[in-house]
């Protein structure tokens, strides 16, 4: 076990080091991941420990990084690539969507693509344009991709281990706003957490709050304040967006009769819309109120003074929950 509690970013470093020690086919590549240890220090110290043949500094060229990663993965390696920021992913889309996601289907299972693309994701750090995107729904719509987003140091460690070991491509989105926000004890035991599973973080009986990534923190805080009002909120961390563990959500909605979905991305066609549609299709007769969504706005995230106004807040989550409860 770690001697001291560690942050989410330190848990990622710990998971990478464990897999690099355990599996010689694992390599890490990206811009400045080697000598400099990455823009957020996720790979700090790995180059000195494992050498420049396994921790690869690449040119400042996201298209090349994506192409190298797919090529390595198709030939038996397990590359873990880094996109420095979420907004830098777009030049990678061709290789991710047209090749990585289709490899198993294209070859009828003869080849797989065991790659991970690590992406610092989301807003809240007062960064400039292209550095604060919540673009998960672009990738949740692509068959053949897993989209994973941890919300705590423990889940960051366990889910990254699982992602690296998975035989198919994983987009691993790291909420940069909570990289260093709080610490947990994270055993460095190599125990992966299951992918494709939602985590029920708080039991409740009146309303189901569904969220992921950085918004888990605000949602748990909202649930605590709602409890003081006599409202019992169940909190679900989706964790793996696709494939979605909808049965866990459906079971909760059947118990509570209400559902509030919280996410940072713009409202229109955000992943919350998919969850809301599934709830409408499969849980209609359990619902006591319309599904509520607490989301970002249908704009690019504003710079800089309005950034936190754009993001879901505890107050917004509480207001949406009260609206759902009013239908009782």
From TrEMBL:
<protein>
    <recommendedName>
        <fullName>2-oxoisovalerate dehydrogenase subunit beta</fullName>
        <ecNumber>1.2.4.4</ecNumber>
    </recommendedName>
</protein>
<keyword id="KW-0786">Thiamine pyrophosphate</keyword>
<dbReference type="Pfam" id="PF02779">
    <property type="entry name" value="Transket_pyr"/>
</dbReference>
<keyword id="KW-0560">Oxidoreductase</keyword>
<dbReference type="GO" id="GO:0009083">
    <property type="term" value="P:branched-chain amino acid catabolic process"/>
</dbReference>
<comment type="function">
    <text>The branched-chain alpha-keto dehydrogenase complex catalyzes the overall conversion of alpha-keto acids to acyl-CoA and CO(2). It contains multiple copies of three enzymatic components: branched-chain alpha-keto acid decarboxylase (E1), lipoamide acyltransferase (E2) and lipoamide dehydrogenase (E3).</text>
</comment>
<feature type="domain" description="Transketolase-like pyrimidine-binding">
    <location>
        <begin position="6"/>
        <end position="181"/>
    </location>
</feature>
<dbReference type="InterPro" id="IPR029061">
    <property type="entry name" value="THDP-binding"/>
</dbReference>
<dbReference type="InterPro" id="IPR009014">
    <property type="entry name" value="Transketo_C/PFOR_II"/>
</dbReference>
<dbReference type="InterPro" id="IPR033248">
    <property type="entry name" value="Transketolase_C"/>
</dbReference>
<dbReference type="GO" id="GO:0007584">
    <property type="term" value="P:response to nutrient"/>
</dbReference>
<dbReference type="Pfam" id="PF02780">
    <property type="entry name" value="Transketolase_C"/>
</dbReference>
<dbReference type="InterPro" id="IPR005475">
    <property type="entry name" value="Transketolase-like_Pyr-bd"/>
</dbReference>
<dbReference type="GO" id="GO:0003863">
    <property type="term" value="F:branched-chain 2-oxo acid dehydrogenase activity"/>
</dbReference>
